[in-house]
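I'll show an entry:

:::
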Amino acid sequence: MMATMLAGCRGTGEMRYLDLREKPPMVQVTDIEPVKIAIEPFEDRRADKSRVGTRTHLWGGTTQFDVLGDRPAGAITHRLADRLRTRGWRDRVWNVRVAPAGSATDADIVISGQVQDFSTTVKSRVFSTVIDTTSRFTIQARNLADRSTTIRTIEGGRSRTVFWFNEDDVREQLAATLKDGLDRLISDTTIESKALRPARRLLQE
C-alpha cells in the first residue's frame, strides 16, 4: 500500500496536455455591433516555448504541462476572439474574426499581441499541493479611422493550495488566469468612433 502511494508521488517527466478551450454561449446575430475587428495571431515571446509549466513531485521527479491542440499564443488569440464575439465591451457582441497578419484590409480595428508569459508552477508537499499561475501579454490595436494605435500590457497571476491534487486544478487555474487578463483588457479599453481607446478612467489617472 505504502509503496503504491509513494510511486504515485513520483514524477516520470511525462507531458500532460491541458484543454483550455471553452464553448462560447449562443448569441443573437442581430445584436452584433457594426464595427469590424480583426485579430491577428499572437506572437509567442515566452522564454520557454516547450511547455507551460512543471509539477515538482513530493518524492522526486516532475510532470510537464502544455496546451492541448494549439500553442499558448494561438489559444489566447482564439479565446480573445470568442470573448469579444459573445461579451465584449459594454457586454455587447462584436463583429470579430481571426485573420492572418496583414490580411484584414477591411477591418476598422486590427488587434495583435505578444505573449511574454503564460505559465504554471506546481509544487507538491506533504498533504498539499501549491499551484501558481502567471500571465503577461501585450495587446496592440491599430485603428483605421485615424491611424492611431492603442497598446496595453496586461499582467496577472493566481495562487491556490489543494489537498487532493488533480490535473483539472491546473487547467482551471490557467483558464481563470487567462480570463482575468481578458476581463482586464476589456475593462481598461473602450470602443469610440470605431476605434479602440484607453478607458476614460485611465486617462484621468
In short: The helical segments are 2-8, 72-87, 167-188, 200-204. The CA atoms of residues 58 and 138 lie 36 Å apart. The first helix runs from residue 2 to 8.
